[in-house]
Amino acid sequence: MCSFRCGVVLPVCSIVLSAIVSLSLVAAGDHAEPTLQLPTVMVAVLVRNKEHTLPYFFSYLEELDYPKDRVSLWIRSDHNEDRSVEITKAWLKRTTALYHSVDFKYRNEPQRRASEKTNTHWNEERFTDVIRLKQEALQAARNMWADFIFFLDADVFLTHRETLRHLVGLNLPIVAPMLVSDALYSNFWCGMSPDYYYQRTDDYKKILNYDQVGQWAVPMVHSAVLVHLNVAQTRQLTFEKKNLPAGRYDGPVDDIIIFAMSANYSGLQMYVCNALLYGYIMVPLEAGETVSGKDVEQLTNVLSYMVNEYGDVNLKEELKRFVPDVPKDKLSLSNIYMINLNRREERRTKMLKHFDLLGLDVEHFPAVDGKQLDDKKVHDLGIRFLPGYADPFHKRPMTMGEIGCFLSHYYIWERMVRLNQQEVLVLEDDIRFEPFFRRRAYGVLSDARRIRGWDLIYFGRKRLQEEEEKWIDGSEYLVKAGYSYWTLGYVITLEGAKKLLRENPLQKLLPVDEYIPIMFGNHPNESWAGHFHGRTLNAWSAAPLLLYPTHYTGDEGYISDTEDSARIDGTLPAVGSGKGGSSTVVNNDTRDAAPLAGEPKKGDKEQLPNAPVLLAESGIGQNEHDLEAKNRRNEL
User: Where do the record's region annotations for Disordered lie (predicted)?
Assistant: First the structure.
């Protein structure tokens, strides 16, 4: 038997078997309506080498909207090579009095078991210790007559405050909140093989991607598991193989598998619930992977998801000192610019949080605001519009927002030339970073520099051609870019900027994400392209992409500062017109009008089924080009 050093054991009062009815007297002889207290819950946590996750884990645990006087904490920690115990103590110093009781024990001992090759090596001795501790936790909850026990891994982040309250309210014998990771990994299985291991099924992705929402019977849940101890059959639940019915189990010594089979043998169904976005989970490390390497990268990915979803990450004040600042750099580039409207402070704030997480040294580049433009200002800037241009979907001239967007990119290209900046990453402010962004960005740049001959590399875009794009010879990360929308993020060379400026695009203006494909010779509208003669831009794309939009048309929170803005009235002269010359007039009765309901936008996840027809009516033959009809977003 291993001896633990006692950190904190503070029972406040005995926990009752079931919900207590409390009555309060309003007046002599009168009684208020009985109020049921919420069931009692014991949260069981095992901690080992979780210095990087614990500040966030404890911050979100504390934020759960569940009466803390109905919650007991049971925490064990051993074989640490970091500050896990120190962090736990720091948090408990302030919060212990809030909870019904806290039982924290830890061991100071040699940092690694003699039988372990690394601290991520799972051998039978380590499994046996975990099984013993989880069985001890289960028995502790039974002994204190807790209504529920909530097994919770220390690399789970329950970001939805209603998680525990909602799970308890389901009144299921065993249920887990479905958790999201930076991969296809989650905390449930939909299938189990005859030898008790994970088996992929069609239902798994349907549940994971929220194609079907609710509570789903599954053979396995783990990492965040709520057990209803008032269900009589839960007395037969166990983590120890010796407690299973004799002769029935011949599987591995593994805590989650033994527990799942004990539920099966007891006639108890496990459930996973995806009714809410409950939170996030880290993917377990494989043998040979390190906490300081892969796991820290995964934490960055998950924290980035949180910033995307909530705008910030929850971190309690006393735990901030345990979170190191991430050193910043420019990804070996001359500069990184973020185009952002000064009035879009909320976007800028969110992006700055991403940059802090990713260690990106980024310069804010104030965008040209379409709301500050009018026909006279546009004319005074010397801007002329491409003859015959009309948006392929809207059949309208450019909007002031599109003009402002083009000018923002144009001024960055000019600045590159003025400052002799050799390679620059241009980012817009409505993007989400794909997992392992830094590592993948360095891989793309390394390949591009080794191969050479490029002017622009898309990091994020909307691919519009169904034809396969050719891989760049010698690269595992780059393809030759086809016709694409969006300028979410791209790396551009000094020579590329010069090529884009050389064509005097302000004299024949069209949207920037039409202009760039024209300049690399992959645009389906030859009539537009014919106005530009130096179409020698060599454009590649990262594959898979490194950036995607934060929102698509129709998503809650979707805002377009380009499409949902005033439109030019059509009286400005097109190229070739001037004093004494003719002018091209486009009637536009929708100036300053709100977009029509159902009107397609570039921000759509998918193009409309009749998109080829819309393009054909804009001068693009239907046989020349078909927009893809499927969503190009990566799965989690």
Answer: 572-636
Contact (Cβ atoms closer than 8 angstroms) between residue 18 and residue 36: no
Q: Which of 360, 361, 353 is nearest to 305 (CA)?
A: 353
- For 593-612, write each residue's pLDDT tens digit: 333 344 445 555 433 233 33
218 found inside a domain: yes
Element (DSSP H or E) covering residue 437 = helix 437-451
Report DSSP letters for 379-409, one per residue.
Answer: HHTT--B-TT---TTT----BHHHHHHHHHH
Alpha-carbon torsion, ordered 121, 122, 123, 126, to 10 deg: 110
Residue 156: both structure tokens together: 């789970």
In contact, 547 and 592? CB cutoff 8 Å: no
Q: How far is Cα 468 from Cα 237, in angstroms, rounded to an integer?
A: 53
Pairwise CA distance, residues 446 & 448, whole Å: 6
517 Cβ contact list (under 8 Å, min separation 6) = 481, 483, 484, 523, 539
> 420 with 465, same domain?
yes
Query: Which of 294, 315, 341 is where one domain is finished?
Result: 294
Calculate the CA dihedral of residues 528, 533, 536, 541 and round it to 10 degrees.
-10
Same domain flag for 449 and 368: yes
Residue at 566 is within a domain: no
DSSP conformation class of 148:
E
Element of type H or E holding 271:
strand 270-273
> What's the pLDDT tens digit per position in 410-466?
999 999 999 999 999 999 999 999 999 999 999 999 999 999 999 999 999 998 877
Provide the domain limits for residue 184: 41-294
Q: Which two tokens stand for residue 21?
A: 């009815």
